[in-house]
Amino acid sequence: MSRHSDPSVTTESTASKNIDRLVRWADDFPTAGVRFADLTPVFADAVGLSSVIDELAVAGEGTDLVAGIDARGFLLGAGVALALGSGVLAMRKAGKLPPPVVSQRYELEYGAAELEIPEAIDVSGRRVLVVDDVLATGGTIAAAAELLRGRGAEIVGAAVVLEIAALGGRSRCEGYPVTCLKQV
């Protein structure tokens, strides 16, 4: 597992081997020029999913809330929260939650998006681990952290299954460690 600021140093782990074995790549999806990492086969494999959850949970030691980003981050976040004995917060795409919500807009490599959380959930003073499937340009994780910090949360880290190192997303994740299980 890679848990440090130098993405060039990696250690082959059980989760990394399962990711290599199971991930499915889709070129030009969702738009031309984007290479999509489909983690569905990893999630559908009991050994693969278990190894990923266990290794992501290491990044969240001392966390009392896991924020899973819509939508694959929900699956990962729930598993990590169970492993840590913490709560889980689903960070939804715009328009999926009833008002009132708190939102954060951000840019993706292929457009713009917005994350929301219910205004009623108090994250103030909570130690939060942000979990998602892929770190690409860093916009989604940075927006999640900004939204949570704006509500008074302490971001203890971000944890992802895959990091596309060439896109430099790690540089946008400031003030907290980033854990990735596999760099591509």
UniProtKB/TrEMBL annotation:
Pathway per the UniProt entry: Purine metabolism; AMP biosynthesis via salvage pathway; AMP from adenine: step 1/1
Chief subcellular location: cytoplasm
EC number: 2.4.2.7
Pfam families: Pribosyltran
Top-level taxon of the source organism: Bacteria
GO molecular function: adenine binding; adenine phosphoribosyltransferase activity; AMP binding
Signal peptide, first to last residue: none
An example Gene Ontology biological process: purine ribonucleoside salvage
GO cellular component terms listed in the entry, alphabetical order: cytoplasm
Catalytic reactions of this protein: AMP + diphosphate = 5-phospho-alpha-D-ribose 1-diphosphate + adenine
Keywords: Cytoplasm, Glycosyltransferase, Purine salvage, Transferase
Subunit structure comment from the entry: Homodimer.
Family: Belongs to the purine/pyrimidine phosphoribosyltransferase family.
Function (record text): Catalyzes a salvage reaction resulting in the formation of AMP, that is energically less costly than de novo synthesis.
Protein name: Adenine phosphoribosyltransferase
